[in-house]
Specification:
The complex is a heterodimer. Chain A is of the alpha/beta class. In chain A, strand 1, helix 1 and strand 2 (42-47) form a beta-alpha-beta unit. In chain A, helix 4 (99-110) packs across helix 5 and helix 9 runs antiparallel to helix 10 (357-367). Chain A is built from 10 helices and 11 strands. The radius of gyration of chain A is 39 Å and the shape is elongated. Chain A has helices at 26-37, 50-59, 76-86, 99-110, 119-203, 207-215, 218-243, 255-266, 288-305, 357-367; strands spanning 17-22, 42-47, 64-67, 92-94, 251-254, 272-278, 283-286, 310-318, 322-329, 371-378, 381-389. By secondary structure, chain B is of the alpha/beta class. Chain B has a single domain (3-117), classed as Rossmann fold (3-Layer(aba) Sandwich). Chain B has helices at 11-23, 34-43, 60-70, 85-93, 106-142, and strands at 3-7, 27-31, 48-52, 75-80, 98-101. In chain B, strand 4, helix 4 (85-93) and strand 5 form a beta-alpha-beta unit. The longest helix of chain B is centred in the C-terminal third of the chain and has 37 residues, at 106-142. Classes of the chains: A alpha/beta, B alpha/beta. The A-B interface holds A 178, 181-182, 185-190, 192-194, 196-197, 200, 233, 236-237, 240, 243-245, 247 and B 10, 12-13, 16-17, 19-20, 23, 81-85, 101-107.
């Protein structure tokens, strides 16, 4: 369907245009005001010099400036230039009439009773001016309106382009994730195997043999290697999770029991106080493996935010659509500039982060038909909420 | 001693997995291609086989199907770097007993192997009992 563009009429009907008339001749001024306002289109304010016009222009807004050419203190061109410095867009018209017409106006203004015959001509002269003014204002407004639509269109195009770029970026990340995950898995499997063999063989060593190891600090080196392998494993599994199609295999679990188990595996350090507020009766239908990954990610983030200790709060509650899990920490909070990006893949502020944790979490949750949101973050702590449907 | 066959085109995987399984007391044979794996399955007895899903001469799933026809009682575990639902569903339908993602923690792999071999033992006992019962019935009818 072709969208209908409803341009509102540039000029609402019955609205009077406001005109600032700049003219030094007092008599012509009052005559002009009277006649210009007569058709009911215009509302005219009069001022008698260029400087006065500039002063008024500062504090009032007019649809148009109508200026006589010769003013007492400057000519209309100078006035126009000065007004343009203040507002380059404002329509500016010269009060241009033929010398003969000016003569008629001046004579009539001197003594209206003596020149009553001129009234018809004068009406014509001013009607002509009033029409020019109305046209100029309408043209100006139409242009403004058009510019507004153009801007809006440009904004729309920009916005769509940006969305497209983001989508493309995410697609590339997905492909890369598949590729890297695949290419790294074999060497990593071998390293993991070797690490396992190393530990098994060390277990079989005699005390004397092990003493030689500790003399040269070899145990520490091995343990460092083991930690880095674990980290590498995490990167690859994050990459694979990110690239993977998520197909939840749901089963019914008791949420309180689930949290109990989860906290046993995570085993938060002693500097962390864990508060659990879980209704013992909530049973939910979820993929336990996926929910474990999700909660591990969110809780690990919370723990990392509280390196110097703090309080971790886990709440679960039933609500209208299903149930929700709320995880709060008392860490330093997420910097405001990072907040919009925390769910973007590869975005991280941690020296050892892959930037995939939260984006994977989000994908897993969404595959369950649920949502994850950042409820609040401040230097006093951060709260995430995971909502999942009932079935 | 339980015999296990590993088929993977990565020699380092073959070698390191073999060492791990041997430490646990399994007898391990390796093959770097599906063809080599199939000929070993045909000529030797194995309690279990581990198949990589990507092999140079054949898809791991095809190898699985052929192996399943030859030795339905042999436990088969698919090992893969891809998490792909079609593959896993297909594998399970085509007779795989388990589906494992690389990289796998050796402890988890050993646990899975142990679990499947125990299953096999139970199956064998049940099969044995059935055979015994069948024979007994036949013998009774002859008398």
């Amino acid at each position: 369907m072709v969208p209908e563009l409803n341009f509102p009429p540039p000029v609402p009907s019955r609205e009077k245009f406001t005109v600032l008339l700049v003219i030094s001749s007092q008599k012509l001024a009052s005559l002009s005001k009277t006649y210009l306002e007569r058709p009911g289109l215009l509302e005219v304010t009069v001022c008698y010099s260029g400087d006065e016009a500039i002063r008024i222009f500062h504090s009032h807004s007019y649809d148009l400036i109508l200026s006589d050419y010769d003013l007492d203190d400057m000519d209309a061109i100078t006035l126009h230039t000065k007004l343009q410095d203040l507002n380059p867009q404002k329509p500016f018209l010269l009060f241009t009439i033929t010398d003969r017409d000016r003569e008629i106006l001046e004579k009539y203004a001197q003594d209206p009773s003596a020149y009553q015959d001129f009234e018809h001509d004068i009406s014509i002269i001013y009607n002509d001016q009033a029409q020019k003014i109305a046209q100029a204002v309408e043209l100006f407004r139409t242009r403004n309106q058009l510019e507004l639509y153009t801007r809006r269109l440009e904004q729309l195009v920009e916005e769509r382009t940006r969305q497209l770029q983001v989508a493309q970026r995410f697609a590339v990340i997905g492909e890369l994730a598949t590729m890297i995950g695949h290419d790294m898995r074999n060497p990593l499997q071998v390293i993991t195997n070797m690490q396992y063999l190393l530990e098994m063989k060390m277990q079989k060593m005699t005390v004397q043999e092990l003493q030689i190891f500790s003399k040269y600090g070899i145990m520490e080196i091995f343990s460092r290697i083991r930690d880095e392998i674990l980290y590498l494993n995490k990167i690859v599994s994050d990459l694979q999770d990110y690239a993977r199609q998520v197909n939840p295999e749901k089963s019914r679990i008791n949420l309180a029991a689930f949290f109990h188990e989860l906290l046993l595996t995570i085993s938060p350090p002693s500097s962390i106080t864990v508060i659990k507020e879980c209704d013992p009766d909530i049973t939910v239908s979820v993929d336990p493996a996926l929910l474990t990954r999700v909660m591990e990610n969110v809780i690990m983030n919370a723990l990392q935010a509280m390196e110097k200790g703090g309080i971790l709060t886990l709440k679960s509650q039933k609500d209208k659509e299903g149930f929700s899990i709320i995880v709060s920490d008392t860490g330093g909070g997420i910097p405001p500039e990072s907040v919009p990006k925390i769910f973007d893949p590869l975005y991280t502020t941690k020296p050892k982060g892959t930037g995939l944790g939260l984006s994977v979490t989000k994908r897993l949750i969404e595959a369950h038909g649920g949502t994850i949101t950042l409820v609040e973050t401040s230097p006093a702590g951060t709260t995430f909420k995971v909502s999942l449907p009932a079935s | 001693m339980k015999r296990i066959l590993i088929v993977d085109d990565d020699l380092a995987i073959l070698d390191s997995t073999k060492q791990i399984l041997e430490l646990e007391g399994y007898e391990v044979v390796t093959a770097a291609t599906a063809g080599e794996g199939l000929s070993k399955i045909e000529n030797e007895f194995f309690n279990m086989a581990l198949f990589d899903i990507k092999l140079p001469d054949m898809e791991g799933t095809e190898l699985l199907e052929k192996a399943h026809k030859m030795r339905p009682g042999m436990k088969k575990i698919m090992v893969t770097g891809y998490a792909n639902l079609e593959n896993s569903v297909f594998s399970l339908n085509a007779g795989a007993d388990a589906y494992i993602m690389k990289p796998v923690n050796p402890k988890d792999l050993l646990e899975k192997i142990k679990e499947k071999l125990e299953e096999q033992e139970k199956d064998t006992i049940i099969d044995g009992e059935k055979v015994a019962q069948f024979l007994e019935e036949k013998l009774l009818s002859i008398r």
